[in-house]
């Protein structure tokens, strides 16, 4: 007997509709959009913390150097002074050489030939070494700078600059053609220079910081600009910490942190017209460059007592200049910056 075969209707499998799929994708996109800024903020907080730690390490290095030498290192030596000539140039260098041994870079320090200028072939190893303590992790572009003239002058950059005071690179030079802001000048005709813990050809010790170490800036940070090429006119000096020339290893408090006032970088300015990510600058005298950073709303600043403070962009200009001077007798409240 033949069995009756009962026809079974096929089972329907329910799938996502296009609208449901688009809704799920939209929800995931919204969640990512909400989460991404929080992740980025957390990463920047970690980078800013590392930047703070770098400055604390540099503060300890400066203090250890002071303990050994009874002074901080000279801000720069070389241009404008009489030194034994080597390779056609004076023995040019900056504070960045002197404290290498104090930031656990003894091999680099021992590799320096102090009888030769900084860009001599024998100092190439030091020039090209990227020292982590000199670089802020929030700055993605602070690595190697292409420098003019010859291949041996290709060297590493740095973010951390010493405090050069409240005026310009020329500080208290009296020639008005170079330094129209030099003192002693009445406030109505110029800005008097009120001394800084770092200067040219002179070492400062704690006794010279009359305003107090907790009220005087030692270092802050800058944004490393990108150079356009390897020749003169295509290189930006800001962040060139091994070089004793203008705007290289120092910042000035002539303008506030991350100021809209354009930096003046004579001869070595790569402006935002050429490199949009660069901090603003023009090729003009006298040279000065502001403290700048990628941190939101301010910069990290190392005080002469070794503490690190976060100074807001909105700090009053007179307060900022007062912090940069070591002999200005300003009355500064701790809640004003």
Describe the protein's architecture and organization.
The chain is an alpha+beta fold and 337 residues long. The chain has one domain (38-336). Helix content is 22%, strand content 10%. The chain has helices at 18-69, 95-98, 106-111, 124-128, 317-324; strands at 76-77, 93-94, 144-145, 155-156, 160-163, 217-221, 250-251, 263-264, 281-282, 298-303, 308-312. The strands form 4 sheets. Strands 7-5-6-10-11 form a 5-stranded mixed sheet, covered by helices on one side. Strands 1-2 form a two-stranded antiparallel sheet. A two-stranded antiparallel ribbon has the order 3-4. A hairpin with a 4-residue loop joins β10 and β11 (308-312). The longest helix is centred in the first third of the chain and has 52 residues, at 18-69. The chain is globular, with a radius of gyration of 27 Å. The termini are far apart.
Measured by DSSP, the beta-strand proportion falls in 5-15%
The beta-strand count equals 11
Give the helix proportion (percent range). Answer: 10-25%
For the sheet with most strands, the description reads:
5 strands, mixed
> Strand arrangement, largest sheet?
7-5-6-10-11
- Class by SSE composition: alpha+beta
Q: How many domain units?
A: 1
| pLDDT < 50 stretches | 182-189
Mean pLDDT: 85
The helix count comes to 5
Shape descriptor reads globular
The SSE order reads HEEHHHEEEEEEEEEH
Ends distance: 102 Å
Radius of gyration: 27 Å
């Amino acid at each position: 007997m033949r069995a009756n075969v009962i026809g079974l209707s096929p089972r329907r499998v329910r799938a996502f509709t296009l609208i449901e799929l688009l809704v799920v994708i939209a929800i995931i996109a919204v969640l990512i959009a909400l989460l991404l800024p929080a992740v980025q903020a957390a990463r920047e907080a970690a980078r800013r913390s590392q930047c703070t730690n770098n400055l604390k390490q540099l503060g300890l290095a400066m203090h250890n150097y002071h303990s050994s030498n009874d002074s901080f290192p000279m801000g720069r030596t070389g241009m404008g002074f009489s030194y034994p000539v080597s390779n056609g140039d004076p023995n040019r260098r900056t504070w960045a050489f002197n404290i290498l041994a104090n930031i656990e870079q003894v091999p680099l320090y021992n590799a320096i030939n102090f009888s030769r200028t900084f860009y001599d072939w024998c100092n190439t190893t030091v020039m090209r070494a990227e020292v982590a303590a000199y670089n802020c992790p929030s700055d993605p572009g602070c690595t190697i700078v292409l420098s003019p003239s010859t291949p041996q002058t290709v060297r590493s950059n740095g973010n951390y600059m010493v405090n050069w005071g409240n005026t310009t690179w020329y500080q208290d030079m009296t020639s008005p053609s170079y330094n129209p802001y030099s003192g002693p000048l009445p406030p109505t005709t110029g800005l008097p220079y009120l001394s800084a813990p770092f200067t040219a050809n002179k070492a400062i010790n704690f006794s010279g910081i009359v305003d107090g170490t907790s009220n005087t800036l030692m270092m802050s940070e800058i944004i490393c600009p990108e150079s356009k090429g390897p020749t003169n006119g295509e290189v930006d000096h800001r962040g060139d910490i091994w070089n004793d020339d203008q705007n290289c290893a120092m910042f000035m408090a002539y303008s506030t942190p991350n100021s809209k006032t354009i930096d003046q970088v004579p001869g070595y300015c790569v402006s935002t017209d050429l490199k949009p990510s660069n901090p603003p600058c023009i090729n003009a005298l006298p040279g000065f460059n502001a403290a700048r950073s990628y941190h939101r709303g301010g910069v990290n600043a190392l005080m002469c007592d070794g503490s690190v403070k976060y100074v807001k962009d909105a700090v009053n200009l007179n307060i900022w200049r007062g912090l940069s001077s070591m002999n200005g007798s300003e009355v500064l409240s701790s809640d004003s910056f």
